[in-house]
Specification:
With 426 residues, the protein is of the alpha/beta class. The protein has 18 helices and six strands. The chain has a four-stranded mixed beta sheet with strand order 2-1-3-4, with helices on both faces.
Length: 426
């Protein structure tokens, strides 16, 4: 039952936090990091090319010419982002001396590396690579892939097979994934949908944990400075508690609104495409109104439960050191969904996913993950919301009972038994 006093307290809690530079730095910084994470890797990859000065010694006389043609073909077709500067060397009579001479050129920085191709390379599929460094794994991956293709074709041709025909016959299957919906088949968003689900899951995790503990720290700070005694003289403890929860919820909602708005802008059709090309199989999903509504509702339910729990702890104890001993249980409840994250993401309709998503403490994060991947049946959504609302009301009732007694209690650290006894006071 809102009253002017609750609104005054809520306004104070809201403004005291929103007006701080730290709040806006953290609010703006996350969308910037998200944009950088989405855009920069592809943009940098599309604009930059690795380089490798490579000497090639082919004692077979058959592999190197095909290898050079393959590199030139890939370069003209915009293939691997590696600029190979090849130097073909005929095999010398003294192989040991030639190897030593190539090593010295690498040490003098005239070459980056050299390859030694022998008949063993074709039969055993092994090519010697000598380089100043072997940590350039991206470049080496392109080199290995190209050599694999060349040597495979050599072996197939030697065995009397047509390499082109064989490549067609053994080509990998590309699953064209179509989601079945009530509106008809829709192209699957692939990694984009998974990324959205993970992003919403992480935002819920961060905000519930951070703002829940913010309630506890705020109560402890007011108890330590005795400000609560002044406030309690003009407002009931339950009004103080309600105002604090509403105010901090408003702070969290402000930050989440900025973050969701940033996600909507970043996933706008054509935005990323105008900046860079996304990797194959990656599509940017959009935030539907239904998804946003579920997110906000689940955040409200999760915040109400954990903020009340942390508010109870803050009112019961005298300092952060005492409070953290019990607050760790709240942290474990928020962290637990990470333990079942991958199984739920892989199969959102499994028994594990359904059961965990119906446990009120885990419903906000796990149900959000399920909804983002595949909307659960209506009865599961209704049951999850009903159970979570019931758990929230119970936790708020317990918090109010403890809050009105513990907020003015100082001195000895109360035991769990004493805190439980406070809930039975009339």
């Amino acid at each position: 039952m809102p009253t002017p006093k609750i609104l005054v307290i809520a306004r104070r809690e809201y403004l005291s936090r929103v007006r701080t530079p730290v709040f806006w730095i953290s609010t703006v910084l996350l969308p910037l990091l998200m944009a950088a994470w989405i855009i920069l890797p592809s943009l940098i990859a599309s604009k930059s090319r690795g380089a490798l000065r490579l000497a090639v010694v082919d004692t077979t006389g058959k592999v190197a010419p095909v290898f050079v043609k393959q590199i030139d073909k890939a370069r003209t077709q915009g293939g691997p982002q590696v600029d190979f500067k090849l130097e073909m060397q005929p095999p010398a009579a003294d192989a040991a001396a030639q190897r030593k001479q190539l090593d010295s050129r690498v040490l003098r920085d005239e070459l980056d590396a050299w390859l030694w191709i022998s008949p063993r390379s074709v039969s055993d599929n092994k090519v010697e690579y000598h380089g100043r460094t072997t940590s350039n794994f991206l470049t080496l991956e392109v080199l290995e892939r190209t050599l694999t293709k060349v040597l495979r074709e050599q072996r197939l041709a030697a065995a009397g097979y047509d390499p082109g025909q064989v490549e067609k016959l053994v080509a990998s299957v590309d699953l064209e994934k179509i989601r079945v919906t009530a509106e008809g088949g829709k192209a699957d968003l692939g990694i984009g949908a998974i990324g959205l689900a993970i992003g919403l899951f992480i935002i819920l995790y961060m905000t519930i944990l951070i703002y829940g503990q913010m309630v506890m720290n705020g109560v402890l700070e007011e108890k330590a400075t005795r400000i609560v005694e002044v406030i309690a003289s003009s407002a009931k403890p339950t009004q103080l508690m309600a105002g604090k929860l509403v105010g901090i919820f408003g702070v969290a909602l402000t930050q989440i609104s900025v973050w969701l708005g940033s996600v909507a802008v970043l996933s706008a059709p054509g935005l990323i495409a105008g900046l860079t090309h996304l990797p194959a199989g990656v599509n940017l999903p959009t935030l539907s109104p239904g998804l946003v509504a579920h997110f906000l509702a689940l955040f409200l339910l999760g915040f109400a439960f954990f903020a009340s729990f942390y508010g109870l702890i803050g009112a019961a104890f005298n300092n952060p050191q005492e409070a953290q001993q019990l607050a760790v249980f709240g942290t474990l409840l928020v962290v637990f969904p990470w333990m079942v994250f991958m199984p739920v993401l892989n199969d959102p309709d499994s028994t594990l996913a359904v059961v965990v998503s119906l446990i009120p403490m885990f419903t906000p994060m796990i149900m959000m993950l399920r909804i983002a991947i595949k909307t659960p049946p209506a009865w599961q959504l209704a049951l999850a919301y009903a159970l979570t609302i019931g758990a929230d009301l119970l936790m708020i009732w317990l918090c109010a009972r403890v809050y009105r007694v513990g907020i003015l209690m100082y001195g000895k650290k109360p035991s769990i038994k004493e805190i439980w006894r406070w809930t039975r006071y009339a």
